[in-house]
Amino acid sequence: MGLEMRATCERCDEPLFANGLAYICSYECTFCASCTRKLTHVCPNCGGELVRRPTRV
Ligand SMILES: [Zn+2]
Ligand SMILES: [Zn+2]
């Protein structure tokens, strides 16, 4: 259990930093901000809503 912090966007392979801006769905599909905008905040894998990934504490 627990969030796996993926290091790249699943769509464009852009590097994502643990404390940078990234979006994630409830199944932990991870996308960068520009892809999330193009996907209109809907995960293309599972249809879930993409929300901002919490930054590392
Ligand atoms: Zn991307
Ligand atoms: Zn998903």
Summarize the model shown.
With 57 residues, this protein is mostly loops.
Would you write up a description of this structure?
There is one protein chain. The chain is low in regular secondary structure and 57 residues long. The protein is 11% helix and 11% strand. The chain has a three-stranded antiparallel β-sheet with strand order 2-1-3. It is globular and about 25 Å long. The relative contact order is 0.27. The protein binds zinc ion (ZN) (2 copies). One zinc ion (ZN) binds next to helix 1.
β-strand number = 3
Bound molecules: zinc ion
Which range does the strand content fall in? 5-15%
Low-confidence runs: none
CA-atom Rg in angstroms? 10 Å
H/E element order: EEHE
Strand order of the largest sheet: 2-1-3
End-to-end separation: 17 Å
Biggest sheet details: 3 strands, antiparallel
**Cα shape:** globular
Q: What percent of the residues sit in helical stretches (DSSP H or I)?
A: 10-25%
Q: Which structural category do the helix and sheet elements fall into?
A: little secondary structure
Keywords summarizing the entry:
57 residues, little secondary structure, three-stranded antiparallel β-sheet, 1 helix, binds zinc ion
Topology:
Blueprint: E1 23-24, E2 30-31, H1 33-38, E3 51-52
Antiparallel strand pairs: 1-2, 1-3
